[in-house]
Specification:
single chain, 228 residues, alpha+beta, Cyclophilin, 2 domains, eight-stranded antiparallel barrel, two-stranded antiparallel ribbon, 12 strands
Length: 228
Amino acid sequence: MTPSKHTRRACLALAALGLVAGQAWAQVTSAPRVKFATSAGDFVVEVYPDKAPKTVENFLQYVKDKHYDGTVFHRVINNFMVQGGGFDASYAQKPTRPPVAHEGREALARGGDKNVVGTLAMARTNDPNSASSQFFINVKDNDFLNPTLIPPGDPVPKFEYQGRVYENTPRAQLVNAPQLFGYTVFGKVVSGMDVVNKIKAVPTAAGGPFPGDVPKTPIVINSATLIK
């Protein structure tokens, strides 16, 4: 019996759907994972090179170089985030490679996560392109840390920010505005979020060169290992 045209079309559609689903599954299963073994317990993060390739490459190179081994979570703020990856247990800052270019907007435009609970993002100074080794984990939804996507056009016909409307603004003025860059999300915690929640709740005080938010009992990253 010869299949009808409708049957053949249905088969082709199912095959195409299967191919798309297979590609999506391949992307999910190929995401690298890093296990952090800390003095408070272990957690695992998954990172997304398809969303923020330069950021992920930079982070994984620090993992491979064992940069994070022996560092501490030096900034812990309950109801905000936990930050580490830059200082050893004596609060000496570890040397780093040159900073990585900011990819926050690109990652968001590619369907990446915002700064919500459990996501992993790069820490930086006021300079958007200053991120090196330090990272933070959001322990609440921090919308104010999200990159701001710039609408098309030059000048941009209409742009809204913090309740104010800007009209016919030169594109470069918006693209280069420091307050619109936000922070690059490049991964998330996939297991051990209970450990992160334990870290966020530890008592803090002044420590080393920092006037506050330092765990009274150091939370040490004993090792960070690429497991996938």
